[in-house]
Amino acid sequence: MESHISDTWKPPEYTNCRKVELDAGILEANRGIAIMQDAQETERYKILRTRIHQHARNRKLSTIMITSPDNGEGKTVTAINMSLIFARDLKQTVLLVDCDLKGQDIHRYMGIDSSVSLIDYFLDGVPLNELIIWPGIEKLTLISGNRSVDESSELLSSDIMENLVQEMGDRYGDRYVFFDAPPVLKRSEAIAMAHMMDGIIMVVQAGRTIKKDVMEAVSLLPEEKFLGFVFNRYK
User: Fold this and answer.
1) Assessment of whether the complete model's pTM goes beyond 0.90
2) Residue ranges per domain, the chain?
3) Ranges assigned E (strand) in 106-160
4) Do 96 and 141 contact (CB within 8 A), yes or no?
5) Over the stretch 86-129, which tens digit does the pLDDT of each residue have?
6) What CATH code would you report for 14-232?
7) What is the C-alpha separation between 210 and 183, in angstroms, rounded?
8) What angle do CA 156, 234, 212 make, to 5 degrees?
9) CB distance 96 to 89 below 8 Å
10) Closest by Cα among 167, 205, 165, 175 to 67
């Protein structure tokens, strides 16, 4: 049989980004259950992954925003678990981007020490490759840091952000980029970013999110980009 070595997909080598060690214990304590391959709850994220792959057959779906109607409904945990599950899939990579610039949580939830993020890209011109973290998980990178800024809405609604989203989504054909965005009803960033995305997922929490807020939040986002809901049962 003829060998097609050149067609064999290989995961990238992370030589141009920062390598750090995530703290699996902290991640598990923060409900990052997808770090455990045998956790029963991961099957729900695998179903979500399959549904998104199905959507991607008929449309470009490289950049996906994860948001929620209000605070505390589990969007960041969902974004992290989605990233971990997608990174296990064959022939694709994942970049997870923290866009809650008034208080970034991704690095903290994963037990990672990081001081630079998108804020440094916007305000100080730090090159993108210097922001990207490889936490030692094959095919997964992330951007998140402990710096905060008040003018988050102005930065995330700018032409610079729109160009950055496009670059992130188009640079590699095998990459999914997940953006953890602030809540729709509390801040303006998710609404401003929505048109830049290929798709949008909304996280709602059992016993907390009320129907009126869900309907209002959905009405503020472009219908053609809305992929659906993730129902979070954790408190």
Assistant:
1) yes
2) 14-232
3) 133-134, 140-143
4) yes
5) 999 877 899 999 999 999 999 999 999 999 999 999 999 999 99
6) 3.40.50.300
7) 14
8) 60
9) no
10) 205
